[in-house]
């Protein structure tokens, strides 16, 4: 479905890894949700939430909720948690 983002995730570090200067590979759980094309949005979000909190939010979200969680993070909104 999102072929462009998948290619980007494979060829470039995702926004999270790029920010942390980490190697990004196919096991990266952040890559599908924070592609390099959204790096500037990720930068803004991590200033508010912090990378560790973003990772925590993503880890706590159920797999089918992660896309929505990522969108909330990138939109700089508080992620609602039960
Ligand atoms: Zn990554």
From TrEMBL:
Pfam families: LOB. Signal peptide: none annotated. InterPro entries: LOB. Residues 12-82 form the LOB domain. Belongs to the LOB domain-containing protein family. This is LOB domain-containing protein 22-like.
């Amino acid at each position: 479905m999102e072929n462009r983002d998948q290619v980007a995730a494979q060829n470039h570090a995702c926004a999270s890894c790029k920010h942390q200067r980490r190697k990004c590979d196919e096991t990266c759980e952040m890559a599908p949700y924070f592609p390099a094309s959204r790096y500037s949005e990720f930068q803004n979000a991590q200033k508010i939430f912090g990378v560790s909190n973003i990772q925590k939010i993503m880890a706590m979200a159920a797999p089918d909720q992660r896309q929505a969680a990522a969108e909330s993070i990138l939109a700089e909104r508080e992620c609602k948690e039960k």
